[in-house]
Amino acid sequence: MPETSAAATASGARIHLENLTKIYPGNPNPAVDSVNMEIKAGELVVFVGPSGCGKSTTLKMINRLIEPTSGRIRIGDEDVTDMDPVRLRRKVGYAIQSSGLFPHMTVAQNIALVPKMVGWSKAKVKSRVEEMLDLVGLDPGEFRHRYPRQLSGGQQQRVGVARALAADPPVLLMDEPFGAVDPITRDHLQDELIRLQHELHKTICFVTHDFDEAIKLGDRIAVLRERSHIAQFDTPEAILTNPTDDFVSGFVGAGAALKRLNLTRVRDVGIVDFATAGVDDPLQDIFDLLRSGTTNEVLLLDRHRRPYKWLRRGDLSRAKGSLARAGTLVHDTVTRDATLRDALEAVLTDNAGRVAVTGRRGEYIGVVDMETLMNNVHELLEADRLEAVEHQHQLQEQRARQTHMAQEGINGAGSSRGAGA
User: Fold this and answer.
1) Least crowded by CB within 10 Å, which of 31, 87, 88, 351?
2) In which band, very low, low, confident or very high, does the pLDDT at 31 lie, cut at 50, 70 and 90?
Protein backbone atom coordinates (compact mmCIF):
# COMPACT_ATOMS: atom_id res chain seq x y z
CA MET A 1 0.00 0.00 0.00
CA PRO A 2 1.50 3.40 -0.94
CA GLU A 3 2.56 5.70 1.87
CA THR A 4 0.49 8.48 0.34
CA SER A 5 -2.68 7.92 -1.62
CA ALA A 6 -3.74 9.95 -4.62
CA ALA A 7 -6.76 11.17 -2.75
CA ALA A 8 -4.57 12.55 0.02
CA THR A 9 -2.17 14.54 -2.19
CA ALA A 10 -1.78 18.27 -1.68
CA SER A 11 -4.28 20.41 -3.52
CA GLY A 12 -3.29 23.31 -5.76
CA ALA A 13 -2.00 26.74 -4.86
CA ARG A 14 -3.09 30.15 -6.11
CA ILE A 15 -0.83 31.74 -8.75
CA HIS A 16 -0.64 35.51 -8.99
CA LEU A 17 1.26 37.21 -11.84
CA GLU A 18 1.89 40.93 -11.33
CA ASN A 19 3.08 43.09 -14.25
CA LEU A 20 5.10 40.15 -15.56
CA THR A 21 7.31 41.31 -18.42
CA LYS A 22 10.01 39.74 -20.60
CA ILE A 23 12.26 41.77 -22.89
CA TYR A 24 14.94 39.86 -24.78
CA PRO A 25 18.32 41.57 -25.36
CA GLY A 26 18.52 43.33 -28.70
CA ASN A 27 14.74 43.52 -29.09
CA PRO A 28 13.13 46.80 -27.98
CA ASN A 29 9.64 45.29 -27.95
CA PRO A 30 8.63 43.06 -25.01
CA ALA A 31 7.87 39.40 -25.79
CA VAL A 32 5.51 39.54 -22.80
CA ASP A 33 4.24 42.90 -21.64
CA SER A 34 2.91 43.54 -18.10
CA VAL A 35 0.75 40.45 -17.65
CA ASN A 36 -1.54 40.54 -14.64
CA MET A 37 -3.42 37.34 -13.86
CA GLU A 38 -4.76 35.47 -10.87
CA ILE A 39 -5.26 31.70 -11.17
CA LYS A 40 -7.29 30.12 -8.39
CA ALA A 41 -6.04 27.19 -6.34
CA GLY A 42 -7.10 23.90 -7.95
CA GLU A 43 -8.05 25.56 -11.24
CA LEU A 44 -7.06 24.37 -14.72
CA VAL A 45 -6.38 27.44 -16.84
CA VAL A 46 -5.53 27.19 -20.54
CA PHE A 47 -3.43 29.80 -22.36
CA VAL A 48 -4.44 29.95 -26.04
CA GLY A 49 -3.38 32.40 -28.71
CA PRO A 50 -1.64 32.75 -32.07
CA SER A 51 1.92 31.50 -32.57
CA GLY A 52 4.45 33.93 -31.15
CA CYS A 53 1.99 35.69 -28.83
CA GLY A 54 4.07 34.82 -25.75
CA LYS A 55 1.94 32.11 -24.14
CA SER A 56 4.83 29.63 -23.67
CA THR A 57 7.12 32.42 -22.48
CA THR A 58 4.54 33.42 -19.88
CA LEU A 59 4.20 29.81 -18.75
CA LYS A 60 7.98 29.32 -18.45
CA MET A 61 8.36 32.46 -16.37
CA ILE A 62 6.14 30.88 -13.68
CA ASN A 63 8.85 28.30 -12.87
CA ARG A 64 11.58 30.66 -14.11
CA LEU A 65 12.87 28.50 -16.92
CA ILE A 66 12.75 31.95 -18.48
CA GLU A 67 13.69 34.73 -16.08
CA PRO A 68 11.27 37.69 -16.04
CA THR A 69 12.72 41.10 -16.89
CA SER A 70 10.36 42.65 -14.35
CA GLY A 71 7.23 41.90 -12.37
CA ARG A 72 6.40 39.47 -9.56
CA ILE A 73 5.29 35.82 -9.33
CA ARG A 74 3.44 34.59 -6.26
CA ILE A 75 2.55 30.94 -5.66
CA GLY A 76 0.27 30.57 -2.68
CA ASP A 77 1.48 33.06 -0.08
CA GLU A 78 5.08 32.94 -1.28
CA ASP A 79 6.78 35.39 -3.61
CA VAL A 80 8.95 33.12 -5.76
CA THR A 81 10.38 35.84 -8.01
CA ASP A 82 13.73 35.85 -6.19
CA MET A 83 13.70 32.24 -4.90
CA ASP A 84 16.51 29.91 -5.95
CA PRO A 85 15.15 28.73 -9.35
CA VAL A 86 16.25 25.11 -8.85
CA ARG A 87 14.38 24.93 -5.55
CA LEU A 88 11.36 26.54 -7.21
CA ARG A 89 11.31 23.99 -10.06
CA ARG A 90 11.25 21.12 -7.59
CA LYS A 91 7.99 22.57 -6.26
CA VAL A 92 6.40 23.03 -9.70
CA GLY A 93 5.62 20.10 -12.01
CA TYR A 94 6.47 20.57 -15.67
CA ALA A 95 5.31 18.52 -18.68
CA ILE A 96 6.23 19.27 -22.29
CA GLN A 97 5.30 18.09 -25.78
CA SER A 98 8.06 15.51 -26.23
CA SER A 99 7.58 14.10 -22.68
CA GLY A 100 11.20 15.03 -21.87
CA LEU A 101 12.02 11.59 -20.47
CA PHE A 102 15.68 10.70 -20.05
CA PRO A 103 16.30 7.88 -22.56
CA HIS A 104 19.00 6.14 -20.48
CA MET A 105 16.70 5.87 -17.44
CA THR A 106 13.88 3.39 -16.90
CA VAL A 107 10.32 4.57 -16.39
CA ALA A 108 10.72 4.11 -12.62
CA GLN A 109 13.98 6.06 -12.55
CA ASN A 110 12.45 8.92 -14.54
CA ILE A 111 9.48 9.20 -12.17
CA ALA A 112 11.73 8.90 -9.08
CA LEU A 113 14.03 11.73 -10.16
CA VAL A 114 12.55 14.70 -8.26
CA PRO A 115 11.44 12.76 -5.14
CA LYS A 116 15.07 11.56 -4.79
CA MET A 117 16.38 15.09 -5.26
CA VAL A 118 14.19 16.42 -2.45
CA GLY A 119 15.38 13.69 -0.11
CA TRP A 120 12.56 11.14 0.06
CA SER A 121 13.43 7.75 1.51
CA LYS A 122 13.97 4.78 -0.85
CA ALA A 123 10.82 3.09 0.43
CA LYS A 124 8.73 6.21 -0.07
CA VAL A 125 10.17 6.79 -3.57
CA LYS A 126 9.45 3.20 -4.62
CA SER A 127 5.91 3.44 -3.26
CA ARG A 128 5.35 6.75 -5.04
CA VAL A 129 6.54 5.34 -8.39
CA GLU A 130 4.01 2.50 -8.09
CA GLU A 131 1.28 4.94 -7.12
CA MET A 132 1.97 7.35 -9.96
CA LEU A 133 2.06 4.64 -12.62
CA ASP A 134 -1.26 3.35 -11.35
CA LEU A 135 -2.64 6.89 -11.29
CA VAL A 136 -1.89 7.45 -14.99
CA GLY A 137 -3.29 4.06 -15.97
CA LEU A 138 -0.06 2.09 -16.50
CA ASP A 139 0.49 -1.27 -14.79
CA PRO A 140 3.59 -0.85 -12.55
CA GLY A 141 4.60 -4.48 -13.01
CA GLU A 142 4.52 -4.11 -16.78
CA PHE A 143 6.05 -0.65 -17.20
CA ARG A 144 8.39 0.24 -14.31
CA HIS A 145 11.49 -1.40 -15.87
CA ARG A 146 10.88 -0.29 -19.45
CA TYR A 147 12.90 2.43 -21.18
CA PRO A 148 11.25 5.35 -23.02
CA ARG A 149 12.13 3.85 -26.42
CA GLN A 150 9.99 0.82 -25.50
CA LEU A 151 6.88 2.99 -25.02
CA SER A 152 4.34 4.39 -27.46
CA GLY A 153 4.00 8.17 -27.74
CA GLY A 154 0.90 8.14 -25.55
CA GLN A 155 2.59 6.00 -22.90
CA GLN A 156 5.60 8.34 -22.87
CA GLN A 157 3.30 11.31 -22.27
CA ARG A 158 1.60 9.47 -19.38
CA VAL A 159 5.00 8.80 -17.81
CA GLY A 160 5.90 12.47 -18.36
CA VAL A 161 2.81 13.55 -16.44
CA ALA A 162 3.53 10.97 -13.71
CA ARG A 163 7.06 12.36 -13.34
CA ALA A 164 5.77 15.94 -13.19
CA LEU A 165 3.39 14.97 -10.36
CA ALA A 166 5.72 12.58 -8.51
CA ALA A 167 6.92 14.98 -5.80
CA ASP A 168 3.32 16.13 -5.21
CA PRO A 169 3.72 19.75 -6.40
CA PRO A 170 0.75 22.09 -5.92
CA VAL A 171 1.30 23.54 -9.42
CA LEU A 172 1.65 21.76 -12.78
CA LEU A 173 2.76 23.59 -15.94
CA MET A 174 1.99 21.87 -19.26
CA ASP A 175 3.40 23.25 -22.53
CA GLU A 176 1.48 21.68 -25.45
CA PRO A 177 2.00 18.25 -23.85
CA PHE A 178 -0.26 16.35 -26.27
CA GLY A 179 0.72 18.11 -29.49
CA ALA A 180 2.97 15.36 -30.87
CA VAL A 181 0.62 12.36 -30.66
CA ASP A 182 -2.09 11.09 -33.01
CA PRO A 183 -5.65 12.45 -32.60
CA ILE A 184 -7.13 9.34 -30.93
CA THR A 185 -4.28 9.11 -28.41
CA ARG A 186 -4.59 12.84 -27.82
CA ASP A 187 -8.28 12.49 -26.99
CA HIS A 188 -7.51 9.74 -24.49
CA LEU A 189 -4.68 11.74 -22.88
CA GLN A 190 -6.99 14.73 -22.53
CA ASP A 191 -9.58 12.49 -20.86
CA GLU A 192 -6.87 11.15 -18.56
CA LEU A 193 -5.87 14.68 -17.53
CA ILE A 194 -9.50 15.54 -16.76
CA ARG A 195 -9.80 12.41 -14.61
CA LEU A 196 -6.53 13.15 -12.81
CA GLN A 197 -7.63 16.69 -12.09
CA HIS A 198 -10.90 15.39 -10.59
CA GLU A 199 -8.79 13.33 -8.19
CA LEU A 200 -5.87 15.66 -7.47
CA HIS A 201 -7.19 19.26 -7.70
CA LYS A 202 -3.82 20.69 -8.70
CA THR A 203 -3.41 24.18 -10.12
CA ILE A 204 -2.66 23.55 -13.79
CA CYS A 205 -1.52 26.06 -16.41
CA PHE A 206 -1.82 24.50 -19.86
CA VAL A 207 -0.58 26.01 -23.15
CA THR A 208 -2.16 25.02 -26.46
CA HIS A 209 -2.80 26.49 -29.91
CA ASP A 210 -5.90 24.28 -30.28
CA PHE A 211 -9.06 26.09 -29.17
CA ASP A 212 -11.10 22.87 -29.09
CA GLU A 213 -8.56 21.42 -26.64
CA ALA A 214 -8.84 24.59 -24.55
CA ILE A 215 -12.65 24.27 -24.41
CA LYS A 216 -12.43 20.61 -23.43
CA LEU A 217 -9.86 21.02 -20.65
CA GLY A 218 -10.12 24.48 -19.18
CA ASP A 219 -12.02 25.66 -16.13
CA ARG A 220 -11.12 29.05 -17.58
CA ILE A 221 -9.40 30.06 -20.81
CA ALA A 222 -7.04 33.01 -21.24
CA VAL A 223 -7.20 34.10 -24.89
CA LEU A 224 -3.93 35.98 -25.46
CA ARG A 225 -3.09 38.62 -28.05
CA GLU A 226 0.41 39.66 -29.06
CA ARG A 227 2.80 40.08 -26.08
CA SER A 228 0.42 38.00 -23.95
CA HIS A 229 -2.08 40.83 -23.61
CA ILE A 230 -5.29 39.24 -22.32
CA ALA A 231 -8.14 39.52 -24.82
CA GLN A 232 -10.58 37.53 -22.65
CA PHE A 233 -10.17 35.44 -19.50
CA ASP A 234 -13.35 33.52 -18.75
CA THR A 235 -15.04 30.12 -18.68
CA PRO A 236 -15.26 28.16 -21.95
CA GLU A 237 -19.03 28.58 -22.02
CA ALA A 238 -18.83 32.36 -21.55
CA ILE A 239 -16.24 32.70 -24.33
CA LEU A 240 -18.31 30.53 -26.69
CA THR A 241 -21.54 32.39 -26.03
CA ASN A 242 -20.19 35.92 -25.53
CA PRO A 243 -16.76 36.58 -27.10
CA THR A 244 -15.57 40.08 -26.20
CA ASP A 245 -14.47 41.13 -29.70
CA ASP A 246 -13.64 40.02 -33.24
CA PHE A 247 -10.21 38.71 -32.18
CA VAL A 248 -11.79 36.27 -29.70
CA SER A 249 -14.57 35.43 -32.17
CA GLY A 250 -11.85 34.40 -34.61
CA PHE A 251 -10.68 31.78 -32.13
CA VAL A 252 -14.19 30.55 -31.48
CA GLY A 253 -14.73 30.25 -35.23
CA ALA A 254 -17.86 28.88 -36.88
CA GLY A 255 -20.16 26.44 -35.14
CA ALA A 256 -20.01 27.73 -31.57
CA ALA A 257 -23.07 25.66 -30.69
CA LEU A 258 -21.34 22.49 -31.89
CA LYS A 259 -18.20 23.41 -29.95
CA ARG A 260 -20.36 23.33 -26.82
CA LEU A 261 -20.44 19.55 -27.27
CA ASN A 262 -16.96 19.73 -25.72
CA LEU A 263 -18.51 20.98 -22.47
CA THR A 264 -20.60 17.84 -21.84
CA ARG A 265 -18.97 14.60 -20.65
CA VAL A 266 -19.87 11.00 -21.37
CA ARG A 267 -20.42 10.44 -17.62
CA ASP A 268 -23.34 12.92 -17.86
CA VAL A 269 -25.22 11.34 -20.78
CA GLY A 270 -26.33 7.91 -19.62
CA ILE A 271 -23.95 4.95 -19.82
CA VAL A 272 -25.81 1.64 -20.10
CA ASP A 273 -24.74 -1.93 -19.44
CA PHE A 274 -24.27 -4.36 -22.31
CA ALA A 275 -24.11 -8.14 -22.60
CA THR A 276 -20.48 -9.21 -22.23
CA ALA A 277 -18.44 -12.41 -22.34
CA GLY A 278 -14.78 -13.17 -21.69
CA VAL A 279 -12.27 -14.66 -24.11
CA ASP A 280 -11.79 -17.57 -21.70
CA ASP A 281 -15.52 -18.28 -21.32
CA PRO A 282 -16.64 -21.65 -22.71
CA LEU A 283 -17.81 -21.29 -26.31
CA GLN A 284 -21.08 -23.02 -25.42
CA ASP A 285 -21.85 -20.34 -22.81
CA ILE A 286 -21.32 -17.60 -25.42
CA PHE A 287 -23.51 -19.52 -27.92
CA ASP A 288 -26.22 -19.88 -25.29
CA LEU A 289 -26.06 -16.16 -24.43
CA LEU A 290 -26.44 -15.16 -28.08
CA ARG A 291 -29.29 -17.66 -28.62
CA SER A 292 -31.13 -16.70 -25.45
CA GLY A 293 -33.23 -14.11 -27.26
CA THR A 294 -32.30 -11.31 -24.83
CA THR A 295 -29.54 -9.97 -27.08
CA ASN A 296 -28.28 -10.47 -30.62
CA GLU A 297 -24.80 -9.19 -29.83
CA VAL A 298 -22.24 -9.45 -27.03
CA LEU A 299 -19.08 -7.50 -26.29
CA LEU A 300 -16.16 -9.87 -25.91
CA LEU A 301 -13.65 -8.75 -23.23
CA ASP A 302 -9.99 -9.76 -23.08
CA ARG A 303 -8.28 -11.19 -19.99
CA HIS A 304 -7.91 -7.68 -18.54
CA ARG A 305 -11.65 -7.01 -19.09
CA ARG A 306 -10.88 -4.61 -21.92
CA PRO A 307 -13.23 -4.42 -24.94
CA TYR A 308 -11.88 -6.75 -27.64
CA LYS A 309 -14.58 -7.75 -30.16
CA TRP A 310 -18.26 -7.31 -30.96
CA LEU A 311 -19.87 -10.74 -31.52
CA ARG A 312 -23.20 -11.17 -33.30
CA ARG A 313 -25.39 -14.22 -33.75
CA GLY A 314 -23.97 -16.24 -36.57
CA ASP A 315 -20.38 -14.95 -36.15
CA LEU A 316 -19.28 -18.04 -34.25
CA SER A 317 -20.91 -20.53 -36.60
CA ARG A 318 -19.55 -18.75 -39.70
CA ALA A 319 -16.09 -18.81 -38.10
CA LYS A 320 -16.57 -22.50 -37.27
CA GLY A 321 -16.65 -21.91 -33.55
CA SER A 322 -13.31 -20.06 -33.29
CA LEU A 323 -13.15 -16.81 -31.35
CA ALA A 324 -9.94 -15.93 -33.18
CA ARG A 325 -11.82 -15.56 -36.50
CA ALA A 326 -15.20 -14.46 -35.16
CA GLY A 327 -16.62 -11.00 -34.66
CA THR A 328 -15.43 -7.43 -35.29
CA LEU A 329 -12.48 -5.91 -33.46
CA VAL A 330 -13.23 -2.92 -31.20
CA HIS A 331 -11.39 -0.06 -32.90
CA ASP A 332 -12.32 2.80 -30.59
CA THR A 333 -13.46 3.39 -27.03
CA VAL A 334 -14.14 6.47 -24.90
CA THR A 335 -13.71 7.14 -21.21
CA ARG A 336 -16.24 8.66 -18.82
CA ASP A 337 -14.35 11.96 -19.10
CA ALA A 338 -14.54 12.04 -22.90
CA THR A 339 -16.66 14.81 -24.36
CA LEU A 340 -19.98 14.41 -26.12
CA ARG A 341 -18.16 15.38 -29.31
CA ASP A 342 -15.56 12.60 -28.83
CA ALA A 343 -18.33 10.06 -28.25
CA LEU A 344 -20.29 11.20 -31.31
CA GLU A 345 -17.22 10.91 -33.53
CA ALA A 346 -16.61 7.37 -32.24
CA VAL A 347 -20.25 6.33 -32.66
CA LEU A 348 -20.48 7.77 -36.19
CA THR A 349 -17.59 5.56 -37.32
CA ASP A 350 -19.25 2.44 -35.88
CA ASN A 351 -21.68 0.55 -38.12
CA ALA A 352 -23.96 -0.34 -35.20
CA GLY A 353 -23.92 3.17 -33.69
CA ARG A 354 -22.46 2.53 -30.25
CA VAL A 355 -19.14 2.81 -28.43
CA ALA A 356 -17.73 1.08 -25.36
CA VAL A 357 -16.86 3.20 -22.31
CA THR A 358 -13.70 2.26 -20.43
CA GLY A 359 -11.96 3.02 -17.15
CA ARG A 360 -8.45 4.00 -16.11
CA ARG A 361 -6.70 0.94 -17.53
CA GLY A 362 -9.06 0.40 -20.43
CA GLU A 363 -11.40 -1.90 -18.52
CA TYR A 364 -15.03 -2.13 -19.66
CA ILE A 365 -17.58 0.08 -17.87
CA GLY A 366 -20.57 0.25 -20.22
CA VAL A 367 -21.79 1.52 -23.60
CA VAL A 368 -23.27 4.71 -25.01
CA ASP A 369 -25.30 4.65 -28.22
CA MET A 370 -26.36 7.03 -30.95
CA GLU A 371 -29.90 7.55 -29.63
CA THR A 372 -28.67 8.61 -26.19
CA LEU A 373 -26.09 10.98 -27.65
CA MET A 374 -28.50 12.55 -30.15
CA ASN A 375 -31.07 13.16 -27.41
CA ASN A 376 -28.41 15.12 -25.53
CA VAL A 377 -27.41 17.02 -28.68
CA HIS A 378 -31.03 18.02 -29.25
CA GLU A 379 -31.29 19.23 -25.64
CA LEU A 380 -28.15 21.35 -26.10
CA LEU A 381 -29.41 22.83 -29.37
CA GLU A 382 -32.79 23.59 -27.83
CA ALA A 383 -31.09 25.28 -24.88
CA ASP A 384 -29.02 27.33 -27.34
CA ARG A 385 -32.17 28.30 -29.26
CA LEU A 386 -33.98 29.42 -26.09
CA GLU A 387 -30.90 31.34 -24.98
CA ALA A 388 -30.71 33.09 -28.35
CA VAL A 389 -34.43 34.00 -28.17
CA GLU A 390 -33.97 35.36 -24.64
CA HIS A 391 -30.92 37.36 -25.73
CA GLN A 392 -32.85 38.81 -28.68
CA HIS A 393 -35.74 39.71 -26.35
CA GLN A 394 -33.35 41.49 -24.00
CA LEU A 395 -31.85 43.45 -26.91
CA GLN A 396 -35.31 44.53 -28.06
CA GLU A 397 -36.22 45.67 -24.54
CA GLN A 398 -32.94 47.57 -24.29
CA ARG A 399 -33.56 49.32 -27.64
CA ALA A 400 -37.12 50.16 -26.58
CA ARG A 401 -35.87 51.71 -23.33
CA GLN A 402 -33.23 53.71 -25.21
CA THR A 403 -35.84 54.94 -27.71
CA HIS A 404 -38.20 55.85 -24.86
CA MET A 405 -35.48 57.75 -22.98
CA ALA A 406 -34.43 59.56 -26.14
CA GLN A 407 -38.04 60.52 -26.83
CA GLU A 408 -38.48 61.79 -23.27
CA GLY A 409 -35.32 63.84 -23.71
CA ILE A 410 -36.71 65.43 -26.88
CA ASN A 411 -40.05 66.15 -25.25
CA GLY A 412 -38.34 67.59 -22.19
CA ALA A 413 -36.19 69.85 -24.30
CA GLY A 414 -39.27 71.02 -26.21
CA SER A 415 -41.14 71.82 -23.00
CA SER A 416 -38.20 73.85 -21.73
CA ARG A 417 -38.12 75.89 -24.90
CA GLY A 418 -41.87 76.42 -24.71
CA ALA A 419 -41.65 77.58 -21.09
CA GLY A 420 -38.82 79.93 -21.97
CA ALA A 421 -40.88 81.46 -24.78
Assistant:
1) 351
2) very high
DSSP string of 367-415? EEEHHHHHHHHHHHHHHHHHHHHHHHHHHHHHHHHHHHHHHHHHHHHHH
Domain identity same for 99 and 231:
yes
Structural domain tally of the chain? 2
- Tell me the pLDDT tens digit for each residue of 153-202: 999 999 999 999 999 999 999 999 998 788 888 888 999 899 899 889 99
287 Cβ contact list (under 8 Å, min separation 6)? 316
In this structure, the answer to whether residues 95 and 158 fall within a common structural domain is yes
Model-level pTM? 0.79
Please enumerate in sequence order all residues whose Cβ is within 8 A of that of 42, keeping only pairs 6 or more positions apart, or say none. 11, 12, 201, 202, 203
CATH code for the domain of 291: 3.10.580.10
Within this chain, do residues 52 and 199 fall inside the same structural domain, yes or no? yes
> Are both 241 and 306 inside the same structural domain?
no
Question: DSSP letters along 70-83, please?
Answer: EEEEEETTEE-TTS
Name the residue range of residue 344's domain: 268-372
**Using CA atoms, how far apart are residues 238 and 236, in angstroms rounded to an integer?**
6
DSSP run (H or E) holding 89: helix 85-89
Residues 233 and 278 in one domain: no
Q: What band does 415 get if pLDDT is binned at 50, 70 and 90? A: low
